[in-house]
# Entry
Amino acid sequence: MKACARGAVVAVTAAVTAAGLAACGESGGSDSGGGNGPRIGVLLPDATTERWETNDRPMIDRQIKELCADCEVEHANAKSDVAIQQAQMDSMIAEGVDAILLVAVDSRSLRPTVAKADEAGIPVIAYDRLAEGPIAAYASFDGEEVGRLQGRALLQAMGAGAAGGRIVMMNGDPSDPNAVSFKKGALAELEGKVEIAKEYDTRQWRTEVAHMNMSGAISALGADNIDGVYAANDGLAAGSIAALKANKVEPLPPITGQDAELGAVQRIVAGEQYMTVYKPFRPEATAGAALAVAAARRESLDRVAPDTVRTSMGSTVPAVLLTPVSVTVETIENTLVKDGVYTIQQICTPQLDAACARAGLT
# Structure
């Protein structure tokens, strides 16, 4: 799969869609009763990261409706609060939804609630983050590959200065299993090649925390002694860049990112951020929706999921693991624009006209 990322994404999307449509076409069991269709709960973790409400939620809704016209979808956003998400899950369990698609705020803390859903006969599909407990299936991207892409890109951007260069690592929230995977993948590329002068874990992935930590790193290391910044996502990149600019660091060191947020893409065009990791939301949403619909209808998940993953409990469950894509200024048009994520007009504001012209985005 990793040898041809874009082809793999297309192939998996097609396979998942076909399997999901087949599952919904069968007369599978439903516990909804009363002529109502299956009910699927969709639990998102926060409103801080742009992707959840802007990309994932509408795509998941659309995919569920395409696969299962009589399915009902119930949404909730935990706004980064574990207790709120636990209460939201408890409410859905009490209502007797037929399946839950979960992006856990804190995978470990949600484990008892996932177990409670399982005891109630409600399958939980872990989406994007591998939740702990007896989950039924998992849909996400290869987290370690995300980190490897970021690490390799940072080394490439640092060029000859990479050997012995000093970097700051701005990792994500350690309670998020994805952040752990990103860090592991990045370290596999960076260790022994650069000096990790400062390293931070960023609770709740907050941009302002990254800003504060980067300001501390600049004070400790000196404005001229940071050769690169590993930022685990675009929000952390934004906070880091703001702190560097506030401290008059010029030129900015190369900085990584993830999620391909519009602001990040514009920073890449402007030369403030070196790269981002594009995780095509549509195939992930397609996979999550197909797994949720199949689970709600009590259909086989193995036909929807071509992969497997080992859970925290040691069991193996069906999974869809997609391949992420590295995006730099040279590849924006052939990735994000080509896939319809953004138009050139959206990216190229009047302030970026000259930079877009240099990048060939016209």
Summary: The radius of gyration is 21 Å.
